[in-house]
Structures are given as C-alpha cells and as structure tokens.
Design brief:
Radius of gyration: 16 Å
Number of strands: 6
Order of helices and strands: EEHEHEHHHHEEHH
Mean pLDDT: 87
Oligomer: single chain
Strand content: 5-15%
Strand order of the largest sheet: 2-1-3-4-5-6
Helix content: 25-40%
Distance between the termini: 23 Å
Length: about 220
C-alpha cells in the first residue's frame, strides 16, 4: 500500500523553507500560496483554487502551520480522504486571541504597514519566539520574501475566519510559549513544552517525531472521530 502524500502548508505569507528541517516519514509536497484574485476574495473561494492541486479522491495528510492550518481545515472539507494536523494554529472551536479580534475590528489588513515588518527584526523575533543565529536568519529571510498582496489578503481572511467542521482534524500541536495564538480554552491535543510560534523550525526534531507518530497511529482515510 502506497503511503499517503503529506501536503505541507506554510504560515501567513511564508514559503516552503519553513519546513526544511522537518524529517517526515513519507512523500511530502509543499502547497505554496497563490495570488488572491482581490483583497476580499472569500477564503472558501481561495482554498477551492488551492485545493485543485490535490486529486479529489486522494488519501492524504494536510499539515498546516499558523494560517496554513486554517487553510488546511478548509481544504479538508473539500477532500474527504484527507486528515489534518494543525501546528501553531487555530482550531475550529478555539477562541481568537485579542490581537486577532482587534485586527478584525480595525480592518487592519487595509492599512497595516506589512512591508515595515521586515525592518523590525527584534520585535518579530520576540513575538514569534525566534532565537538568535540561523533561526533568526531564516525568519528574516521569510519576512523579506513576504508577498504583500498575499499577506494582506491572508490577514483579512484570518481576522474573519469563524471555524469549520472539525472531523478531519487528527491532531493539534501548540507550543506552551506561543505568544501569537495560544489561548486559554484552546482544544490542543499536544502542548509542546517551550514551543513558540516558530517551533516547526526551532524544535523541528520534536515536531517531526510527533507528526510521524500521529501518522503511524491514525489512518489517513475515514472514519476518524
């Protein structure tokens, strides 16, 4: 039996470099972000175009980091043989952190100076939990490559997201030191000690082991829960 393909979806505006340190037991493909048709393209329409790269009847894993986890959940609704693993992300019933609620209230995706983020590396490193050294260099490289149109659309979609059907979710990995999305009352299956929002990089060996264990233990086809 051929192992299920593992599709990796990076965080908001990021790219496949986010997954370079993962060692996963199976064939992997990165689902890179595509350009939105316009700033207010509905998330459902966007992920339908994104999901077109996955055969409709394929048994697969969708592993999404941060906003990539939101996209993974929405894609999972359209691919009935998929299973979702969330990393440093929001689950369907998780309360939104105050920063996201404020961003939605202020429509921050319209005016936030996204390009300025790359010029504030120390603040970004602290907020995302990125230590100095090669991790910081990778984080800065991701910031410098942020496509403003995709990032601005992603922020608006994240601010407005209200959750979706959770039946495809196999696991939800969150770091207990995540300053970005960790909230009281979140429905996490694995709380990673010392894990920051950037733990898919900073604790790649541990995250790889957790994901590999989950994939071994959970069938990549229905029913799951």
């Amino acid at each position: 039996m051929t192992p299920a393909t593992i599709y990796l979806i990076p965080g908001l505006g990021a790219d496949g470099r986010l997954f370079n340190r993962l060692q996963l037991a199976g064939a992997t493909r990165v689902l890179e972000w595509i350009a939105p048709l316009h700033l207010h393209e509905p998330l459902t329409d966007y992920v339908a175009r994104m999901a077109a790269r996955i055969p409709e009847d394929e048994a697969c894993w969708l592993i999404g980091v941060s906003f990539g986890g939101v996209a993974a959940q929405e894609i999972g609704r359209r691919r009935p043989n998929s299973r979702v693993i969330l990393v440093s992300s929001l689950g369907p019933a998780d309360p939104h952190p105050w920063l996201l609620r404020l961003g939605r209230l202020l429509a921050a995706e319209r005016w936030l100076p996204i390009e300025a983020l790359r010029h504030l590396p120390q603040a970004g490193n602290w907020f995302f939990g990125v230590p100095a050294g090669r991790d910081a260099a990778l984080f800065q490289g991701l910031l410098e490559a942020l496509p403003p149109a995709v990032t601005r659309w992603s922020l608006g979609a994240l601010f407005r997201w209200r959750g979706t059907d959770s039946r495809a979710i196999a696991a939800h990995l969150m770091g207990d030191s995540d300053r970005v999305l960790l909230t009281a009352g979140g429905h996490y299956t694995h709380l990673v000690p010392g894990g920051s929002h950037f733990m898919v990089v900073t604790q790649a060996a541990e995250i790889s082991q957790l994901i590999n264990d989950i994939i071994r233990q959970v069938p990549a086809s229905p029913p799951l829960l």
